[in-house]
Amino acid sequence: MSNPLRGRKSVNGLILLILAGEAAFFLPFVLQRVFRPTFLEVFGLNNYQLGICFSVYGIVAFFSYFFGGTLADKFSPRILMSIALVLTSVGGVWMSFYPTYIGMQLLYGYWGFTTVFLFWGAIIKQTRIWGGSDNQGIAFGLLDGGRGLVAAILSSLGVWIYANHVSNQLNLNLIGRQNAFKEVILFTSATVGIIGVLVFIFLDKSTSTVKKVPVNAIFVWAHFKQVLKIPSIWWLSLIILCAYMGYKVSDIFSLYAKEVMHYNEIEAAGIGSLLLYLRPAVGVLIGFMADKTRGSLMLFWGFVVLLLGSLVFASGIIDPGLNTIFFLGVALSALGTYAARAVYFAVLEEGNIPVLLTGTAVGVVSFIGYTPDIFSGPLIGNLLDQSPGEPGHMKVFGLLAGFSLLGMLATVAFRKAAKHGGF
Questions:
Q1: Which class is 8-206+220-417 in CATH?
Q2: What is the dihedral sign for C-alpha 39, 41, 42, 44?
Q3: Average pLDDT by consecutive 10-residue portion of the chain (423 residues)?
Q4: pTM for the complete prediction?
Q5: Where are the domains of the chain?
Q6: Secondary structure of residue 33 in the 3-state scheme
Q7: Are 320 and 262 in contact (CB under 8 A)?
Q8: How far apart are CA 387 and CA 260, in angstroms?
Q9: Whole-angstrom distance, CA of residue 63 vs CA of residue 76
Q10: DSSP for 177-219?
Q11: How far apart are CA 304 and CA 299, in angstroms?
C-alpha cells in the first residue's frame, strides 16, 4: 500500500477524520469534562446522577459496538460518519433546553447510538486504511493527537463564550448561568453539524479501497468467529479497558481543581481545557515512536506513567497551596492516558488482525474495552459523593492505579500473544 503521508487528498482526508473524530464525542463527554462543576449545577445533577447518564450511554454503546463494527465493514465510512455527526448535533439542540434527569438519560442513550453504532467502527477502519501497513502508529497518533487539538480549541472557545456571558459575576444566579452555558451548547452543536456536512461532501470517496463484507447481512457470523480465534484480541480488549479508565477519570480534573485546590469555576474549566493541549503533542510523538519501535512498547510505558500520576493524587500529598505537585500529577496522568489512547488501535496490525476484519475486530475489542462507560460513571460518582473533597478523589485515583498496573500486565501478555517477546 502506498505511503499515505503523500498527496493532498490524503492530508485533507486525515484533517476531516480528526475533526469528525472529536466532534462526535464533544457534546456527550468533553463539555462535562471541561465544565464539570458548572455542568452539574446548571443541569441540577450530582456526580452519581451524571454517572448514571454515562451508564445509559454505555449500555447502548455496549450493544452498538457489537453490531456497529460489522456495519463499518459493509457500508461507506463517509456516509456513516456524516449521518452520525448530524444526528449527534440534533441531540445537542435538545440538550440546550435543559431536559429533566430522565430526559438526560434518554439523551445519553441516543448519543450512545449515534456516536458508536453509526460512527465508531467507521472512523477506526477509515484511519487504518489511511495508515497503510507501515504507518499505523503515526496514523492513530495523528488522529488522537489531532482530536486533542480540536478538543482543546473548541473547549477554549467554549470557556471564552461562557466567561464572556458570565463576565466577572461569579455569583450569577442559576438562570444566568444556564443562559450562558446554553450558548456553549448551541455553539458546539452547530460545529458538530457543520463538520458532519463537510465529511459528507469532502471526504474522499476513493479512500475506502478495501474490499467490503457481503452486503446480504449486517452481522457476518463467520467473521466474528474468525476474530474471536485471534489470541491478541482478548488482551487488546483488556488493554483498552484499563486505558479507558484513565480517560474516564480525567473527567474529574476540573472538579478536583475546584473542590481540592479551591479554584473558581472559570479557573477550574481552564484546567480542564489546558490539559487537552497535551494530547496533540503526546499523540504525534507516541505515534511516531510506535512506528519506529512497537506500539505495544509505547502502551506499556504509557501505563507506567499513568500509574505514577494516579499515585500522586491517591497519596493525598496535594494541598491547595501545592500547585506544582498538582500540575505534575495532572501532567503525568494526562501523558499516560493520551499515550495509551494514541496507539491502542494502532496495534491491530501488530496483533495480526486482517484489515478486512477491522470493523468486526474493533467491535469486539470495543464491546469489552469500553465497558467503563457502563460502570465507571456511577462508581466514580458514588466515591466522590460519599467522601466529599479530597478523600473521594484519593479513592478514585487509587482505583485508577490498580487499573494502570493491570494494563501493564495485559500489555506484556499481548506482546507474547503477538510473538514479540519481552521488553
A1: mainly alpha
A2: positive
A3: 49 86 90 87 92 92 77 80 96 96 97 91 78 67 78 86 73 82 95 95 62 50 75 90 90 86 82 75 75 81 95 89 86 89 80 72 82 88 89 94 96 83 43
A4: 0.75
A5: 8-206+220-417
A6: helix
A7: yes
A8: 12
A9: 21
A10: HHHHHHHHHHHHHHHHHHHHHHHHHHS-GGG--SPPPPTT-SS
A11: 9
